[in-house]
Design brief:
The structure is a single chain. The chain has about 180 residues and is an alpha/beta fold. The protein is about 35% helix and about 25% strand. The protein contains six helices and seven strands. β1, α1 and β2 form a beta-alpha-beta unit. α1 packs parallel to α6. The termini are close together. The structure holds 5-O-phosphono-beta-D-ribofuranosylamine.
Length: about 180
Amino acid sequence: MVKKNACVFISGTGTNLKSLINNSRDYNFPINIKLIVSNKKKAKGLNFAKKFAIPFIIINTKNKLFEKKLLIEIKKRKISLICLAGYMQVLSKRFISNFKGKILNIHPSLLPKYKGTNTFKRILNNNETIAGCTVHFVNDKLDSGKIILKKKFNLSIDENEMSLKKKTQKLEYRAFSEAINKIYR
Ligand code: GRF
């Protein structure tokens, strides 16, 4: 299989990144991760870049030239898929239009419900009985691009933010990789 070159954007812990790295080491998984991008220099997830010797860059989104530099890095590595895995910054319309249909995001709710942040709190406040995660293409509206797949589970009666996060993220690891397999099938 000829694998595609992918890049993963993170801002935090990077557990989704870790799962993508692990899966990408499988011969049959359609991508190789060639670059990791973080907008936080202290993001814990950068440790996975170091551990697996994957090149990474830290971007300063306050610097107006950051996107230009980022595009150069991405093009240099012939990246054809960008995975947003807990990247907590909105990408510009210009950047998104450069990679139409090539940017995926994972979101910790069953979209179109609960777009944006603080999803777990809002899900619990609304007494939802079902929760889950969604992998979707990124367009220029927040958490609104075409959905690739969703995975769901039933909430337990004593669910709290911690347990909900844990269950959701466990599903996310499978969902992200399944979505990548699905788009290249
Ligand atoms: C995930 O729950 C994802 O849905 C959201 O941010 C979280 C990132 O977690 N967009 P991690 O950094 O992959 O551990």
